[in-house]
Specification:
By secondary structure, this protein is of the alpha+beta class. The chain has helices spanning 2-25, 105-112, 214-221; strands at 27-28, 31-42, 52-61, 64-71, 76-82, 88-94, 97-103, 119-129, 132-140, 146-156, 171-179, 184-195, 210-213. It contains 3 helices and 13 strands, in the order αβββββββαββββββα. The chain is globular, with a radius of gyration of 21 Å. The relative contact order is 0.19.
Amino acid sequence: MKLSIKKALLVLFLGIFCTATDLLAQKSFVEGVINYSVTIGPLAGGAGFSEHAGNYMITIKGKNIRKELVMNSGYRNVILENGNTGAIYSLQTVAGQHYAIQLKTADLDEKQKPYKDFKEKEEAGSMTIAGEKCSKVTITYKDGSNSIVYITKDWVAPEAILFDRLPGIKYMPLSFEYRNEEGITMHFAAEKIEAQPIESAQFRVPPDYKIISNSEYKSMRR
């Protein structure tokens, strides 16, 4: 009987120790840069992911987020999100004029609805991406569609809005994909993840950008 109690306590102690070690190993990514390469291609078997099509960079400083997508075609889009004030801007250039388009949180939340409350299932197999060991996870959305994501459990994503189609994901995804209705996939693979000090100016609207509403911008594009 005494031996059984000692064994049970040992198992409990080891369980607590392992859990504590895992928690200590996890770091919240509160300030730094994640740089992803971007490739595009058809859905079938991932074929077509041979051409390097661009770069996607996420920059974080506390509740400030900057997302910058630059494609080889010349397309560039920058999103600035201030989690403290709720202000969100999309930086665009039209006919040589720079605009900071004000976006509404409610509109972005509406776009995220199909992706919320997804299910995660960890699969066999792992991969090292950007120097980080990543676990393979199947993401299943409410409509039954699914996607493969590779996450590193060493980094915890600090903000629920950090990844557009993975709202609320806990761990940092270093490989993921966005699909559209035409059957085209945009694949993201992290090349570098760096925790480092970031200048606050990265999250401000540049002085040469004119601030306009989203409705004004849509009127200009007609």
